[in-house]
Amino acid sequence: MNAQDDTFFRKFSENLDCNLVVKNISQTMEEKDVSDILSQFYEVKCISMSTKSNLFQTFKYAFVSFFEPEHATAVLENLNNYEIRGSKWKVEKYCKSLNYVESLNF
């Protein structure tokens, strides 16, 4: 984990019900684009976008934290499997794990 990730996870809500992972984000999207879309629902506390690659493809994903658990739940219910800029987003509750990034399945 680098210093940027460490700073983000300190801001990430202690209440795990406030935290989501958004997967399968379009390669054309930047962190601000994702934040702008999510902020149409509720204020985003913090967001960190990254990529994961295998031999065939690179995937973009974002860790997102909201101020209230109901806000995260509403975003999950409204945007999971919703197509945005040609990619069907997979929105899931964040699961605290040391190897969470390695275990992400796209």
Label the overall shape. globular
**Unreliable stretches:** none
| CATH H-level homologous superfamily name | RRM (RNA recognition motif) domain
What proportion of the residues is helical, as a percent range?
A: 25-40%
- Measured between the Cα atoms of the first and last residue, the distance is 21 Å
Strand order of the biggest β-sheet: 2-3-1-6
Structural class: alpha+beta
Number-wise, the strands total 6
What is the CATH topology?
Answer: Alpha-Beta Plaits
Order of helices and strands: HEHEEHEEEH
| CATH class (first level) name | Alpha Beta
Q: What topology does this entry show?
A:
Elements: H1 3-11, E1 19-25, H2 31-39, E2 44-53, E3 58-66, H3 69-79, E4 83-84, E5 87-88, E6 90-93, H4 100-103
Antiparallel strand pairs: 1-3, 1-6, 2-3, 4-5
Question: Would you kindly provide a written description of the structure presented here, covering whatever features stand out?
Answer:
- The chain is α+β, with helices and mostly antiparallel strands and 106 residues long.
- It has a single domain (3-58, 66-94), classed as Alpha-Beta Plaits (2-Layer Sandwich), CATH 3.30.70.
- The chain has helices at 3-11, 31-39, 69-79, 100-103, and strands spanning 19-25, 44-53, 58-66, 83-84, 87-88, 90-93.
- The strands form 2 sheets. Strands 2-3-1-6 form a 4-stranded antiparallel beta sheet, sandwiched between helices. The protein has a two-stranded antiparallel sheet with strand order 4-5.
- The longest helix is centred in the last third of the chain and has 11 residues, at 69-79.
